[in-house]
Amino acid sequence: MATTSPRSTLQQRLTRRTHRFAALAVAALTLVGTVGVAIGSSVNAGAVATDARTQRANVRAEQAKVAAQVNALEGSQAQVMAALNTLNENVRGQQATLSEARRQAEASAAEAAQAERDAAQTTRELDALRARVAKYAVKAYVDPPGEELMRRFEAASAQEDATRNAFLNMQSRTDSDVIDQLRSTKARLEEQLARAQSAKSAAEAHAAEAESALASLAGAQEQQQLFAIQVRQRLDESLSDAAFLSRMDADLGRQIAAEASELARAVSPIPAPATGSASGGSTQPPNGSGSPTTTTPVSRGGSTPYPTPSLTTVNGITVASSVADRVRGLLNAAAADGINLSGYGYRDFNTQISLRRQNCGTSDYAIWEMPPDSCSPPTARPGYSYHERGLAIDFMANGRFINSRSNPGFVWLAANAGRFGFYNLPSEPWHWDTRGT
After folding, report:
1. Spacing of C-alpha 122 from chain mean position
2. Collapsing DSSP states into helix, strand and coil, what is residue 351?
3. Which of 108, 241, 288, 302 allows an S-S link to 203, with CB 3.0 to 4.6 Å?
């Protein structure tokens, strides 16, 4: 029976362990040969926040849509103020949504870039480990334990089995540590690549949200500015009346001025669209629908912005001769029904021009085009009042201005003035003009 020498047994054990490590190393290299990234589906907190933000923006947009339907020329002071506040809040909200979407897009892009840098570093570490393991594997197959290692085990210090096993086990643990390090590095790389991909997707989603928010903001600003045009036309009407009526009825003048100042403060932050050059163009007063109606071209260098209309005075009210017969018929009909109407019609535009120079500035732009709310105090633009064309009357009934819709004079006019081609400016019970004809 053949016997096996201790040297042969040791050689076999070392060779088996060496070949086992080599096989394990090859398997590990195969495992990490290709790094795949699997991104599981999960609830994304950022997506939830985005959805909530979008819902809030949609609610504001719907509220603004309703507010924009308010007629700023005809609505009450409270209605117009509420509509302005809603439209302004919608713009502020859309701006906040856009800013947050852009911030999150930038943050996600930065996170993706950092994750990619981390992955690149980990890839270098993984390549180094793979090279190290591959080197071990090749060496184990090509250069198994030789005579020098055998002589060490045969030395006196290595005769005990416990010492031999300790040495072999130590070598095995070292080999396993390298394999484990290779696997953990691969797992770390997969996590970093997944994080980079997730951050990229988030950045794209936030960028799309920002693009949508930008379009919504543009729409909200256009909606706001269109409403502001009407509000400024209302200011041109009311401020013009306030400046004139305060000389006849101080309380009414103060009331009109206070309401106009409140509107001016609310509308002043809204940019006014360009209305022409500072050196030429036409002043465009409003008509009943809120659309501009071009008047006679303005001669900015002269003293007459529009030709003075032919004027006729009817029962103390000076109006354009073209409507004098209508006014006479209206006054006679009211008197027949026991309503004594009087009032004020035509106003010289030069008075308003002087006020604009005083309160707004002396340039052509300041006099003719600067929004009324940009002046201090707010001052109506020349050309926006039907009084300057002799086509409007501020009525008094029984010696007092009509300042409410319950006034008998207003009740009669509401029922009858339309027959004579005069219509009320709803924000001012005393003001009636021909804009509806």
Report:
1. 41
2. helix
3. 108
Which residue from 37, 32, 189 is spatially nearest to 121, judged by alpha carbons?
A: 189
Helix (H, G, I), strand (E, B) or coil at 161: helix
Using a 10 angstrom Cβ sphere, with 0-12 exposed, 13-18 middle and 19 or more buried, the burial of residue 207 is: middle
Side-chain half-sphere exposure of 275, counting CA atoms within 13 A: 20
What is the Cα–Cα distance from 313 to 195, expressed in whole angstroms? Answer: 83
Q: Maximum distance among all alpha carbons in the chain?
A: 149
State pTM to two decimals.
0.66
Length of the chain equals 437
Residue with structure tokens 């949504």? 97
- 90 near 64, Cβ under 8 Å? yes
Closest by CA to 205, choosing from 96, 41, 49, 55, is 49
**Token couple for 133:** 């393991």
Nearest-angstrom CA–CA distance, 266 and 373: 9
Grouping H, G, I as helix, E, B as strand and the rest as coil, residue 28 is helix
Question: What is the C-alpha to C-alpha distance for residues 271 and 291, in angstroms, rounded to an integer?
Answer: 19
On whether the CB atoms of residues 375 and 360 are closer than 8 A, the answer is yes
Structural contact between residues 340 and 398, judged by C-beta atoms closer than 8 angstroms:
yes
Q: What are phi and psi of 19, to 5 degrees?
A: -70, -35
Q: Which amino acid is at 347?
A: R
d(CA 186, CA 122): 8
Peptide bond into 377 cis (omega under 30): yes
φ/ψ of 35, rounded to 5, equals -95, 115
- Cβ neighbours of 291 (radius 10 Å): 11
What does the pLDDT profile of the chain (437 residues) look like in tens digits? 555 555 555 455 555 555 555 555 555 555 555 554 444 333 355 566 667 777 888 888 899 999 999 998 888 889 999 999 999 999 999 999 999 999 999 999 999 999 999 999 999 988 888 888 777 666 666 655 554 544 554 554 545 554 455 444 545 555 667 778 888 988 999 999 999 999 999 999 999 999 999 999 999 999 999 999 999 988 988 888 887 888 888 888 888 888 889 999 999 999 887 654 333 333 444 343 333 333 333 333 344 456 778 999 999 999 999 999 999 999 999 999 999 999 999 998 888 899 999 999 999 999 999 999 999 999 999 888 899 999 999 999 988 899 899 999 999 999 999 999 999 988 889 999 998 65
CA dist 67 and 83 (Å) reads: 5
